[in-house]
UniProtKB/TrEMBL annotation:
Pfam families in the cross-refs: DUF2809
Keywords for the protein's UniProt record, in alphabetical order: Membrane, Transmembrane, Transmembrane helix
Organism expressing this protein natively: Pedobacter vanadiisoli
Record protein name field: DUF2809 domain-containing protein
Membrane spanning stretches: 34-53, 60-79, 99-117
Length: 119
């Protein structure tokens, strides 16, 4: 793994970031916002890291998946309260406050999408 700059992945990151903001602000459905947003967040993190790191595609994607799983399991432990952010709407939204097996499935789908990217 080495530092680099990849404008293609930075563009992908920015496009997904904008999509995530629009989904959070304007979509209030039962599928795209909860499931699609979670799929995209894994690709978002992966694209951000690929913007600045030259790394093995599979290892990086797996690392992002494990990170997403860790955050989801921490939600089960109500970790937002550890930092005193339970009343902070922005931090609660970003970090999440409730565990869901469906979120784990969404993260796995995002991982599969990340595997489609080539070095």
């Amino acid at each position: 793994m080495k530092l680099t700059f990849n404008s293609k992945f930075l563009f992908i990151f920015l496009a997904i970031f904008l999509s995530e903001i629009l989904i959070a602000k304007y979509l209030h459905d039962v599928f795209i916002r909860p499931f699609g947003g979670d799929v995209l967040v894994v690709v978002l993190i992966y694209a951000f890291l690929r913007s600045f790191l030259k790394a093995n595609n599979r290892k990086l994607a797996l690392g992002v998946l494990l990170f997403a799983f860790l955050i989801e399991f921490l939600q089960k432990l109500n970790y937002v309260t550890w930092f005193g952010w339970e009343n902070n709407k922005l931090m609660s939204t970003i970090l999440g406050t409730s565990f869901s097996v469906y979120d784990l499935l969404a993260y796995f789908v995002g991982y599969l999408i990340c595997l489609c990217f080539r070095d």
